[in-house]
Amino acid sequence: MAGGPGLELPSPSLPLFLLLLLAAVTGHTAAQDNCTCPTNKMTTCSQDGPGGRCQCRALGSDFEVNCSTLTSKCLLLKARMRSHKSGRKLVRPSEHALVDNDGLYDPECDHEGRFKARQCNQTSVCWCVNSVGVRRTDKGDLNLRCDELVRTHHILIDLRHRPSSGSFNHSDLDAELRRLFRERYRLHPRFLAAVHYEQPTIQIELRQNASQKAPGDVDIADAAYYFERDVKGESLFQGRQGLDVNVHGKPLLVERTLIYYLDEKPPQFSMKRLTSGLIAVIVVVVAAIVAGVVVLVISNRRKTGKYKKVEIKELGELRKQPSL
Ligand SMILES: *[C@@H]1O[C@H](CO)[C@@H](O)[C@H](O)[C@H]1NC(C)=O
Ligand SMILES: *[C@@H]1O[C@H](CO)[C@@H](O)[C@H](O)[C@H]1NC(C)=O
Ligand SMILES: *[C@@H]1O[C@H](CO)[C@@H](O)[C@H](O)[C@H]1NC(C)=O
Ligand SMILES: *[C@@H]1O[C@H](CO)[C@@H](O)[C@H](O)[C@H]1NC(C)=O
Ligand SMILES: *[C@@H]1O[C@H](CO)[C@@H](O)[C@H](O)[C@H]1NC(C)=O
């Protein structure tokens, strides 16, 4: 009695099995159709890869990007310039972001997507940059030589949170920021050297020299750039808007951001008003959350190892002097 219906089972279950298989296949295809790059909004993706694999290319360069890690800052700047030109709003621009200057140029990237040591204008103006793409020499003509790409091995991110947030617990804040850099920016924890806090200022120190960086390791330049864009409410991650960090349920609202870049070699500027080797170069502007980002290049004084700021320009000055 039980055997009868039991024997009948295979025939109805075979189409059922096929149906399930079909569903699985279409489900799979649907998932594949949803072919986007989680770590970079500024890409176009399609199933052109081997075996119909989802493959994503950076806008502006057509460079194939690896969507399981960060895209290099050079390619991101290139994509940003492209999207500005075409007027497409690929990344929600913040209402207040108006300023394009030295920090926003259409860079030349090498075969790995890194900045080329020498960058030139469409005209014949050239200058040398460091590994974060910031100018570190005077401008010259096409004869200017940049022998090597000088590495930015220390990045200090200086944030001020809203005073109304009150005070954060330092160890909780530290843990939360370390988690952010590890999980969201995929930066190996050993490159986040320290988190300092004295209300309302938070400092994040990233350190990574060439010998410490293994193949496949995220570069601190890229992690810092993704962070900067998050702070400005222009997240590069799919499905994100900006920085949404909570410390014990209390949101971290950033008011102002300064980013200091320290190169392995002192920058080479001849401007007399600056003491040797020290300069500030401004890059960016206002965020959705009212954060001005000032970018500085500084070199450390060998003996003390301390920073010395010579020039910081903020938003107001920037307008008067757009090209540094
Ligand atoms: C497709 O992408 C969207 C947004 O990135 C995501 O919410 C959704 O879960 C994805 N669907 C599939 C089937 O992967
Ligand atoms: C690049 O050239 C344009 C003119 O073509 C000039 O306005 C701009 O300031 C130059 N940018 C830099 C960074 O030299
Ligand atoms: C901060 O939080 C840690 C645990 O997360 C706790 O051990 C410590 O006492 C707290 N410090 C203060 C000052 O509240
Ligand atoms: C790299 O950093 C480590 C630790 O900070 C340091 O000991 C080492 O000398 C550095 N190497 C170079 C080549 O600067
Ligand atoms: C993409 O990046 C991940 C993480 O760095 C790495 O494991 C993987 O091998 C990379 N894939 C390709 C195709 O380079």
UniProtKB/TrEMBL annotation:
<dbReference type="GO" id="GO:2000738">
    <property type="term" value="P:positive regulation of stem cell differentiation"/>
</dbReference>
<feature type="signal peptide">
    <location>
        <begin position="1"/>
        <end position="31"/>
    </location>
</feature>
<comment type="similarity">
    <text>Belongs to the EPCAM family.</text>
</comment>
<dbReference type="Pfam" id="PF00086">
    <property type="entry name" value="Thyroglobulin_1"/>
</dbReference>
<dbReference type="GO" id="GO:0005634">
    <property type="term" value="C:nucleus"/>
</dbReference>
<dbReference type="InterPro" id="IPR043406">
    <property type="entry name" value="EPCAM/Trop-2"/>
</dbReference>
<dbReference type="InterPro" id="IPR041630">
    <property type="entry name" value="EpCAM_N"/>
</dbReference>
<dbReference type="Pfam" id="PF18635">
    <property type="entry name" value="EpCAM_N"/>
</dbReference>
<dbReference type="InterPro" id="IPR049420">
    <property type="entry name" value="EPCAM-Trop-2_C"/>
</dbReference>
<comment type="function">
    <text>May function as a growth factor receptor.</text>
</comment>
<keyword id="KW-0812">Transmembrane</keyword>
<keyword id="KW-1133">Transmembrane helix</keyword>
<dbReference type="InterPro" id="IPR036857">
    <property type="entry name" value="Thyroglobulin_1_sf"/>
</dbReference>
<feature type="transmembrane region" description="Helical">
    <location>
        <begin position="277"/>
        <end position="299"/>
    </location>
</feature>
<keyword id="KW-0472">Membrane</keyword>
<dbReference type="GO" id="GO:0016020">
    <property type="term" value="C:membrane"/>
</dbReference>
<keyword id="KW-0732">Signal</keyword>
<dbReference type="GO" id="GO:0005615">
    <property type="term" value="C:extracellular space"/>
</dbReference>
<dbReference type="Pfam" id="PF21283">
    <property type="entry name" value="EPCAM-Trop-2_C"/>
</dbReference>
<protein>
    <recommendedName>
        <fullName>Tumor-associated calcium signal transducer 2</fullName>
    </recommendedName>
</protein>
<feature type="domain" description="Thyroglobulin type-1">
    <location>
        <begin position="71"/>
        <end position="146"/>
    </location>
</feature>
<keyword id="KW-0325">Glycoprotein</keyword>
<dbReference type="InterPro" id="IPR000716">
    <property type="entry name" value="Thyroglobulin_1"/>
</dbReference>
<keyword id="KW-1015">Disulfide bond</keyword>
